[in-house]
Amino acid sequence: MTTLHFVESLRELVTGVDVVLSDIWGVVHNGLESFPEACEALHNFRQQGGTVVLITNAPRPADSVQRQLRKLGVADETYDAIVSSGDLTRLYVADHPGRKLFWLGPERDGSIYRGLGAVLAPLEEADYIVCTGLYDDETESAEDYRGMMLKARERKLTLVCANPDIVVERGDRLIYCAGAIAELYREIGGEVIFYGKPHRPIYERAMALAGERQGHQIDRRKVLAIGDSVRTDLTGAREFGIDCLFVTRGIHSEEFEGLDQLDPASVLELFGHPPKALMRELKW
């Protein structure tokens, strides 16, 4: 399939759908404010008996993500559960007790280690790296960390990436995320473990939680993913075997000007395999 299917509302797509796995940043909010129509759409789907699991590459535990959502005005009734890449990273740290880790990321992500007894150490003494982001994502890019990554590669340290996103929206700007540093490290020959979309573990965890809510194992044919990133949301859904609704107002918005006029070759170049449907912004 190389044609694009545009829809105006979520309700056009959810007949026969039991579970929605929705991205957060770029779909539900932009880091500064929530999108009321998107929240209403997810809430209405739940009112019809559907289950909504928010899946996010946020490098923090789910309860920290929930607190941020509340501050931005996203009601708890919008969703049933949250799965974060931070949760999966915490499992890795917990499975390596006593091992020294070098933490690369801003102080605001400190909750990722809460209750784990993590042993933090300088790069020169660490056994592995956990990257939750850049120290100052307002001014820095991955290139600012090339020297550090070269030193890490010399020591053959594994880098655990707690947020595979390359960039994310903050208001009307794009800022770099942990994924940008992780990709740089991989390019220079370093070993990287990615947690979060598009990698399988976060989808498996989300499906398990959805199954608990529904009271039965979930048929992937009855699942719809929602996201705004080709690299993480669309690729992750396709590789996991579920349909995807692609929201174009997010990080790719400039690329999608005139999207409805693309020829099949351009569609393939942009998407690879196109999503089930596209919508500018999530609405019911």
UniProtKB/TrEMBL annotation:
CDD domains: HAD_like. SUPFAM superfamilies: HAD-like. InterPro entries: HAD-like_sf, HAD-SF_hydro_IIA, HAD-SF_hydro_IIA_hyp3, HAD_sf. NCBIfam families: HAD-SF-IIA, HAD-SF-IIA-hyp4. This is Haloacid dehalogenase. It comes from Bradyrhizobium iriomotense.
